[in-house]
Amino acid sequence: MSEILDLNEIRQQITVLDQELLTLFAKRRALTLNVAKSKVQQIRPIRDQQREQELLVRLIKHGKTLGLDAHYVTSVFQTIIEDSVLNQQAYLQSLANPNIQVPTVSVAFLGNKGSYSYLASHRYFSRRAEKIIESGCQNFADILQQVESGQVDYGMLPIENTSSGSINEVYDLLQHTNLSIVGEITQPIEHCLLTAVNTSLDKIRTIYAHGQPFAQCSNFLDKQKNIRIEYCDSTADAMAQASELQDETIAVIGSEEGGQLYQLHALEKSIANQRENHSRFILVARKSVEVAEQIPAKTALILATGQKAGALVECLLVLKEKGINMCKLESRPIQGRPWEEMFYIDVEANLKSFALQEAINTITQHTNFIKVLGCYPIEHISPTNVPSDEI
After folding, report:
1. Predicted confidence band at 375 (pLDDT cuts at 50, 70, 90)?
2. Residue 135's pLDDT band (boundaries 50, 70, 90)?
3. Which of 366, 378, 360, 380 is nearest to 301 (CA)?
4. What SS3 string covers the chain?
């Protein structure tokens, strides 16, 4: 009969293994950066999804011989692959834009520490800067003003959510700014009901939150009785109020990660209408960026066609003819011009590409106004698919 180890000894062995894993992860990341360096002159795409798939299949087969579940192996290595791709992209972007690589950046975002915009800002710059100077703002207009005036280097703005849709106020503000979109990031939105003290759901009488979380958690809120809704300028403001009041009848909707910064704990988790809830953020700056040819790029356009029948269709057909994929189309009214629309279009193409340049020149003939809002790397890394018979 094998000797049963003491619990503390088992935990100590796990700690040693965890440290060894971190060392190996760091070594693997360094090697993938060397891969990126080898692609600088060859202009080869960052991703080779066929090779990624073959890698995962080999790892799954080997994992099974070690008693590891295929889904577990797939999940771990998809995360590793995503990290590798994003780090290679960040490296190539640093070469393409040497003038903006600095150890410290300043960023304006909605709310204060703990807001989803705060979390998105820190996540985006974790690969790009050693230090972030934070500037919390009370509204989206203040964010743009701080960037335009040079008070900060960048502004982080939520643009759309998988549950509540587009954030129209941001689209409206983009009509009137000269800033460029230079980046994007998709932030998981994991809404929880947070409290400052130990309490129970039946005792809650007031819930604080920003308007977006309320909309995204409407199904949960509709089931609650005798609860008053208090709108706040940001999720961070809501958490700060709950933390200050220390009241068992008060709760706030926010992330568990953000709530920890205010000593709040989750009373209820996963309260959003959709289980897969994500917000897409855009990063704006005073100057545009160059996107390395090896990196998948997205270009944002804004255009107005006037009240001419079929004008928008003609513009979209140009994109189709050039083989350019449109991944976003949003219409917003033009202020002061009733019944006229401004269209925002995101396409998956580098602004420097011949196809997109030709498309923009042709589209210009069908529009009253067209403007490039920015070209930037695509940050969303789709997981590599594994054949079902291998799992």
Report:
1. very high
2. very high
3. 360
4. CCCCCCHHHHHHHHHHHHHHHHHHHHHHHHHHHHHHHHHHHHCCCCCCHHHHHHHHHHHHHHHHHCCCCHHHHHHHHHHHHHHHHHHHHHHHHHHHCHHHCCCEEEEEEECCCCCHHHHHHHHHHCCCCCEEEEEEECCHHHHHHHHHCCCCCEEEEEEEECCCEECHHHHHHHCCCCCEEEEEEEEECCEEEEECCCCCHHHCCEEEECHHHHHHCHHHHHCCCCCEEEECCCHHHHHHHHHHHCCCCEEEEEEHHHHHCCCCEEEECCCCCCCCCEEEEEEEECCCCCCCCCCCEEEEEEEECCCCCCHHHHHHHHHHHCCCCEEEEEEEECCCCCCCEEEEEEECCCCCCHHHHHHHHHHHCCCCEEEEEEEEECCCCCCCCCCHHHC
Report which of residues 193 and 386 the model is more confident about. Answer: 193
Token reading at 326: 């449109």
Distance CA 330, CA 172 (A): 11
Residue 332, pLDDT score: 86
- For the chain, list the domains and their CATH numbers: 7-97 (1.20.59.10), 100-189+278-285 (3.40.190.10), 191-268 (3.40.190.10), 297-377 (3.30.70.260)
Q: What is the per-residue pLDDT across 224-278, written as a single tens digit (0 to 9) for each? A: 888 999 998 888 889 999 999 999 999 999 999 999 999 999 999 999 988 888 8
Q: How many residues does the chain have?
A: 391
Mean pLDDT calculated for residue range 54-72: 93
Closest CA to 60 of 70, 49, 52, 50: 70
pLDDT at 180 over 60: yes
User: In which residue are the tokens 């798939």 written?
Assistant: 53
d(CA 308, CA 368): 10
Spell out the residues 6+ positions from residue 381 whose beta carbon is closer than 8 angstroms to its own.
Answer: 81, 82, 85, 86
pLDDT for 9 beyond 50: yes
- Contact by Cβ (8 Å): 82, 381: yes
